[in-house]
Amino acid sequence: MKAASDALQHQSVSGPGGSVGLTGEGPPLPDDLRACIEPVSPFRGESDSLDASQLKLCFTCWSCAVECPVNRFTSRLNPVKLLRMAHLGLMDELLECPDIWYCLSCGRCSRICPMKVKPSALIAHLRYQAVEMGVRPPNLPSLLADHNRKFQRRRRRAMSACVEGSRLQESPGDWETPGEASSGGEAHVDIVLPEFSQRGAFRKEAGRHLGFSTGSSLCYTCCQCRNACPVCFEREVFDPLFFIRVTNLGLRRLALNSPSLWLCIQCESCTHACPMGVKGHLVIRQLQSMACRERVFPGRVLSQWHDVQKDLYCAHLDRIDGLLT
């Protein structure tokens, strides 16, 4: 056994620079090659110390990549890639990577992870470091927030066009056009309250989704769901609190007929922010199910909406690339 071990210890492999022993003996690797394969150890320590990320726990199941709404429509934001790069300590590459600015900060990747890894926290940290270290200009976060606001406004107008049976034509000026409708689409229409019994029946039906209580009756309008929602930049475009309130008021028409109902990305941010345990994402999911059952939004509209979103998300990322250049 000792002879075999000694023989193995002195084996070598040949490469462009000659023979290199398996134990590290032989000529050293060139600096450029070593830089490509050796991680930056200080950044690995920094990354692992984030309460955030828990990088070491990732076993590359790809749940985060499947769950990410941006990646789902564009295949251009893969949280697994960012996690692996961070684990290898590729600091410079990560700070210059445009992918970290594509994120909507919805947190779906972190909530779906079976190992409690938090890619969203890593991305937030990388954004901060990119600005702090001068890789990106200090006004980039505010420019990005303004662009995301326009993007959600654009999604609202696109869904309205799908309902009307038309297709929204893309033009650069449209991103600057203010939203023209309220989140319910009924703000300037006289509201006729249904009969009390009808309102009660609607509240009961909308109060449970697949057997789970939505807890909507517990809402006391603290607005935490609105503050946490990554889609709610303008209340006139989308507001999770709007749907909870109209559900509690029993206003079936306002709740089910709004195109904004389909802007929700089901990230559950509203649910996790609510101090009363109201499950805002289930409220909206149940309203969507009821709208489908009652054919308020036919399958044709929803199919077209899915296709339109692909174009919108791609245009969204292209415009972010423009901000980074």
- Structural shape: elongated
Low-confidence parts: 1-24, 179-189
CATH topology of the largest domain: Fumarate Reductase Iron-sulfur Protein, Chain B, domain 2
Strand order across the largest sheet: 1-2
- Structural class by secondary-structure content: mainly alpha
CATH architectural name of the largest domain: Orthogonal Bundle
H/E series, N to C? Answer: HEEHHHHHHHHHHEEHHHHHH
Per DSSP, what share of the residues sits in E-state strands of 2 or more residues? under 5%
- In whole angstroms, how far apart are the ends? 61 Å
Radius of gyration: 25 Å
Q: Classify the helix fraction into a percent range.
A: 40-55%
Number of helices: 17
What is the tally of beta strands? 4
Indicate how many domains the architecture comprises. Answer: 2
| Biggest beta sheet summary | 2 strands, antiparallel
Topology:
Layout lengths: L1 H8 L2 E4 L2 E4 L9 H7 L3 H9 L13 H5 L1 H6 L4 H9 L3 H6 L11 H5 L6 H14 L7 H24 L32 H11 L1 E2 L2 E2 L10 H5 L11 H9 L3 H5 L12 H5 L6 H14 L5 H26 L1
Antiparallel strand pairs: 1-2, 3-4
